[in-house]
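Re: weekly structure request thread

Next one in the queue (345 aa):
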Amino acid sequence: MTKPHAIHPLRIFLVSALLTLSLGAWVVSTKGAAALWLFTILVILEVTFSFDNAVINSRILTRMSKFWQTLFLTVGIIFAVFIIRFVLPIIIVMLSSGHGFMEVVDLALNKPTLYSATLHEAAPIINAFGGTFLLMLGISYFMDREKDIHWLRRFEKYLSKFGRFENFKIFVMLLVAMILYGTAESAHREIVLVASIIGTVLHIGLELFGDYFSSRQSGTKLLVGGAAFASFVYLNILDASFSLDGVIGAFAITNDVLLIMAGLGAGALWVRSITVYLTRTGTLAKYRYLEHGAHWAILVLGIVMLVKLYHIELPEWFVGSIGLIFVATAIISSVLEKRREDSVQ
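Done, posted below.
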């Protein structure tokens, strides 16, 4: 049993708080006090966009050994801050603009306005890939015939029946890719089709990769070795799918790439701390519908990313609140359900 002091919130969130204060001090010393407000907004933006991501991460982390949990929370944060929030957008700009890597880095650091404009031009790639991947994640969760707990009972129970057909979710996602190809702007059709297929194939590949190693250690409670590595890769790709849309949204707040890295990086630290808290306190077991709410939020966020292909831009505050609304509602439903069961006993 975990010792009480090991799950004290202060112990879990202290490092994130200290690093956030340090980054805030750096922002003030290098960019002035006015930039601190933008830094704070970026931190909040990242946490609200990725809160439901923390719920999904905690579900997977509970099955991973302490070594892999530590790796995700240490090495993983370096990957999340530097690779996903700096290098990956640069690579996307490279692919969409034809510029070299160092040329794009120069744009990011010295010509942020031009870099921001170029990144926004690459938005169809990001939205098609991220939207498809998140949609596939949500569909895979609800179209599961072995799923026996349902939050939105009739609807979720109905969706779970489709899990009997192994290829149904692949059929749905290929249909989505065809619809996107047929309805997106002609200038982006091919790249949208390729990005959406890559998102689908990547999710299927990660599932197969994880299932293969999990089946080889079916007798063990915790994932280790290849199965843990597959989960580690899956968690980081999931984080990338959530974060890319946030990176684009961050440029609506400021064009300063280093400030964006600092703000979103600090937010990522808090999301990791929330993940640890949910994992070590067993919150998913306590609130039975919490995971359901997170996956509904993921489905909606995937749809939001896809409709952006048609220039339907919802306010950032609304998109960022979707996850919190679903998760909060799921928690309330869980508490009410528990009270109802206790009153019957």
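The longest helix spans residues 66-97. The chain has one domain: 4-344.
Next request, please.
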